[in-house]
Amino acid sequence: MTYGFETLAIHAGQDPEARTGSVVPPIFQTSTYAQDGVGQPREGYEYSRSGNPTRDALQEALRALEGGRRGLAFASGLAAEDTLLRTVCQPGDHVVIPDDAYGGTFRLFARVAERWGLTWTAASIHHIDTMRAAIRPGQTKVIWIETPSNPLLGINDIAATAALARDAGALLVVDNTFASPYLQQPLSLGADVVVHSTTKYIGGHSDVVGGALIVGDDELGERLAYHQNAMGSVNGPFDAWLTLRGIRTLGVRMDRHCDNAERVVEYLRNHQAVSEVLYPGLPTHAGHETAAKQMRRFGGMVSFRAAGGEEAAVRICERTELFILAESLGGVESLIEHPGRMTHASAAGSPLEVPADLVRLSVGIETADDLLADLERALG
């Protein structure tokens, strides 16, 4: 039977608990399990790094929502990324990454994986030709994209890039954090691996850190599961439970995020203190047609450039009240940040350096009129 997204979000991996009938999956807050005999784990559970029923419920929910063959949960988005890279790559391999990527992802490649012997090239995700030119035949093992990208909200054509990756003998990895599986499902468009920081929209309440990998191939899923256990970068049972709780309302939250973001975008477009608004829902956005083709809606993330330059951008960030000055994104509350001095400071001086006048908004689910009034105070 095929269920709709909201039904899967509430039920996938979340059957009532067998012994008591609890409709909410329990938190199995344990590190180890009694065995039925020497070397005979009960239902396969022996140690919670290797397997935990609460984490398994989350992994099944993630798998179902992305339409994959296997889902794996991790302690953070970067833990998921690191495990993926060390599973599918080896020293001497090459990866194509976006020239507009999350600062933590750039730091992982440039400061950690590079020392391990992994090389990388930053290329624009907006054009297939630029990514094709960055490929090193026989050496490139992964093409890594974010769409929408962080923080410039660039859009990549996933299906076209998947074809490019196949021709190059590489895996296509899509960071789907900004869209969430409610707005976009990259595996259905040809991607090999989907990455999430589940801290963001999937968790949705700014109270838990986590990451995920979802794959469309059983063999790759087995390899990743082996490394998940061998490297030990798993989330704990309570973190898994909090993330699972957030998933249940993902669809309704994303609709409200999108509604409010559209109101904010329309307001910012007409304000003299704003020189440019970056949002894939705008017909003037370079990736608008592609986004409309592969996304349900255009998301709750909005970036804009301050007409007064860097200092004006910083002042705007410091003046808001409802928009909380903080890193992260995707929670029910609205956040504002200056990427150049906050989330993307590690990219300063690199090909991924962001404009100094850029402001990034994570538009929450508050009353939209209150958010507009807050921006009016900050911009005015």
Described by the principal axes of the CA atoms, the overall outline is globular
Distance between the termini: 54 Å
Number of helical stretches of at least 4 residues: 13
Compressed to H and E, one letter per element, the order equals HEEHEHEHEHEHEHEEHHHEHEHEEEH
The SS-based structural class is alpha/beta
- The fraction of residues in strands falls at 15-25%
Gyration radius, rounded: 21 Å
Query: Overall mean pLDDT score?
Result: 96
How much helix, percentage-wise, in residues?
A: 25-40%
Spatial arrangement of strands, main beta sheet? 3-9-8-7-6-4-5
For the sheet with most strands, the description reads:
7 strands, mixed
Number of strands: 14
Task: Outline the low-pLDDT stretches.
Answer: none
Task: Provide a brief overview of the structure.
The chain is of the alpha/beta class and 380 residues long. The chain has 13 helices and 14 strands.
How is the topology of this model organized?
Layout: H1 5-11, E1 35-37, E2 40-41, H2 53-66, E3 70-74, H3 77-88, E4 94-98, H4 103-116, E5 119-123, H5 128-134, E6 140-146, H6 158-168, E7 171-175, H7 180-183, E8 193-196, E9 211-215, H8 218-231, H9 237-247, H10 250-269, E10 274-278, H11 288-294, E11 301-306, H12 310-319, E12 324-325, E13 335-337, E14 358-362, H13 368-379
Parallel strand pairs: 4-5, 4-6, 6-7, 7-8, 12-13
Antiparallel strand pairs: 1-2, 3-9, 8-9, 10-11, 11-14, 13-14
